[in-house]
Amino acid sequence: MTAAPAAGPAAVLVGPPGSGKSTVGALLAGRLGRTVRDTDADVERTAGKPISEIFIDEGEAHFRALEADAVRAALTGHDGVVSLGGGAVLDAGTRALLAGLPVVFLDVPLAEAMKRVGLDVSRPLLAVNPRQRWRALMEERRPLYTEVARAVVTTADRTPDEVASAVLDALELTTA
């Protein structure tokens, strides 16, 4: 087992679609005077197309392989804030890499997540019956999110700024 680099990420955000990982990640990075790295954006850059097209053209397994590579690169080569795709924790290798890192699970209730993601076609796993599919994803992923997290921050009834403050408090980080 390889130890995490000394200059690893200041914070790693995990959680389901609609939890605010990208938005909160950008706010955290700004407050910490660091940059944010979103692994979904990294995958899209590498593939040269949106995630929804990767799913259609090459399938979920190919996407997950690209995602695992993107996560590995972000966790070992970035000292800012890292926002992981919602399903990144499904990979055992990713979970192993997250051990000992400052990981925060952004927990969001179903109703709030649906307001945020709605019928977003860029989210292929939520394209058909999003409420039921989101619920099923959470049943599968919640134990994995809590397994890798140092802290859990609920986003219910909080603004992104309030969530960012809660993450800073949970990780006992000071701003730049």
List keywords for this structure.
single chain; 176 residues; alpha/beta; 8 helices; 52% helix; disordered N terminus
Characterize the structure shown.
This protein is an alpha/beta fold and 176 residues long. The protein has one domain (11-171): P-loop containing nucleotide triphosphate hydrolases (Rossmann fold, 3-Layer(aba) Sandwich), CATH 3.40.50. It is built from 8 helices and 5 strands. The protein has helices at residues 21-32, 39-47, 51-57, 60-77, 92-98, 110-117, 130-148, 160-171; strands at 11-14, 36-38, 81-83, 103-107, 151-154. The protein has a 5-stranded parallel sheet, with helices on both faces. The longest helix has 19 residues, at 130-148. The N and C termini lie far apart (33 Å).
**End-to-end Cα distance:** 33 Å
Beta-strand percent range: 5-15%
Main sheet makeup: 5 strands, parallel
Q: Per CATH, which architecture?
A: 3-Layer(aba) Sandwich
Number of structural domains: 1
- Class from helix and strand fractions: alpha/beta
